[in-house]
Amino acid sequence: MEDSTNMENVSNADKLESIKSFQSTIRKLEKTLDTMTQKGANTTLVKKRLKASCIGLAMLENVWNQKSHDYTLEDLAEARNVLTGLFPSIENSYAKLKVGVKVKNDLFLRYK
Questions:
Q1: pLDDT for 64 beyond 50
Q2: 20: closest CA among 79, 102, 91?
Q3: What gap in Å lies between CA 5 and CA 13, rounded to an integer?
Q4: Cα distance from N-terminal residue to C-terminal residue, the chain
Q5: Is the sign of the CA dihedral 91, 95, 96, 100 positive or negative?
Q6: Separation CA 56–CA 87 (nearest Å)
Q7: Residue 59 in 3-state DSSP?
Q8: Residue 18: helix, strand or coil by DSSP?
Q9: Which residues contact 57 (CB under 8 A, 6 or more apart)?
Q10: Is residue 4 part of a domain?
Q11: Would 27 be classed as within a structural domain?
Q12: Rounded CA gap, 34 and 27, in Å?
């Protein structure tokens, strides 16, 4: 994903917030997947985003906490594409929010 030397120069507070942010995103995607499955809706996109978010979290934990993972290079590349594909919508949402709003802070951490 990212060059690990850049990821190692992050404060412990930012590391913790980033991990919490990914965990929150994963919980929300799991709830969304459950709801969509119950309604019989197409879940392909949510499943892709959920997998990519889980891989993103695993990469942060790998670099920052030395936790191992079982993802392949193909998995990592796909996750990177999915997550970077979200940047435009995150940027648009971020731009519409007021300064100091908790959601804006959360979006900033996820985007960072």
A1: yes
A2: 102
A3: 18
A4: 13
A5: positive
A6: 14
A7: helix
A8: helix
A9: 19, 22, 23, 26
A10: no
A11: yes
A12: 11
Rounded-to-integer distance, Cα 93 and Cα 96, Å: 5
Check residue 104 and give its pLDDT. 45
**What six digits make up the tokens of 72?**
């392949």
Q: What global pTM score does this model have? A: 0.78
Q: In this structure, which amino acid lies at residue 1?
A: M
Type of residue numbered 60: L
- Quote the mean pLDDT of the chain: 83
Q: How far apart are CA 1 and CA 56, in angstroms?
A: 8
The count of structural domains within the chain is: 1
Interatomic CA distance for residues 75 and 93, integer angstroms: 27
**Does 101 map to a domain?**
yes
Distance, in Å, from the CA atom of 42 to the CA atom of 37, rounded to the nearest integer, reads 8
